[in-house]
Amino acid sequence: MNAVGSFLCKFSHSHEHKRLGKVTLICSMMYTALNLRPYLKTLNHSYWFPALSYFNVVLPAFLPRSGDIKSTFWLRARSAKKQSGDTAKHPLVVARSIEMARERGCRARAWAKKDDGVVDNETTATASVPETLVPSSHVASTALIGLSLLGNLDGIYRHPEYLGIRLHTLTTGSRQRPGGMLLFGYTFVGKLWVSLGYDENGFDKQVVDKYWINVLSTIDELLL
Questions:
Q1: Where are the domains of the chain?
Q2: Tens-place pLDDT, residues 27-71
Q3: Which of 5, 83, 94, 217 could make an SS bond with 149 (beta carbons 3.0 to 4.6 A apart)?
Q4: Rounded to 5 degrees, what angle do the CA atoms 145, 211, 175 make?
Q5: C-alpha to C-alpha distance for 87 and 172, rounded to whole angstroms
Q6: What is the end-to-end Cα distance of the chain in Å, rounded?
Q7: What DSSP element (H or E) covers 87?
Q8: Displacement of CA 69 from its chain's centroid (Å)
Q9: How far apart are CA 95 and CA 40, in angstroms?
């Protein structure tokens, strides 16, 4: 689901760019989450306490001028799956995640103090950001869409344990920020579920509707 969902969003975007004759970048990079629970022995058993790390998936951003679209779709989905598998099976995945969390924490605190106008020489020294990586005021620094690909939830909601109750629908809790857009994808009761939520004040409704139509038509064309 993660591999297919990641490329599903990019495929819909590239398909629209190709239809409109717009120039598309060579590659696109998306980040996704990695569940660290299988790697950690001492951890709160409640799913309210997430243990997450993050990694990048890089895929071509363009569609071929000719050839079978379905073959292209599944080839790149397999590439995303391989990149995800290589990350999950890497012997240094836990050590990398701990170090990355420490660095992200330092940078987050440094940016928060900078936003508040507080100067902290110690924090700034340990979490400095190269000037070339600091976006200018003329460049958008907010992701246009977030992906929440939850995988197979039938492994979490064990249906036989709900005696006398039939689970048929799952209502997800949106974590999108103001001005954001979030796509959920998961399997539940043996079915594929996809939902899109967005801030109506942050996007042109016609643009969102067109993108959603592309996502649904891509699912119909390539997955059903």
A1: 2-90+135-222, 92-134
A2: 777 777 788 888 887 666 776 777 888 888 887 777 777 778 788
A3: 5
A4: 30
A5: 27
A6: 14
A7: helix 69-88
A8: 23
A9: 11
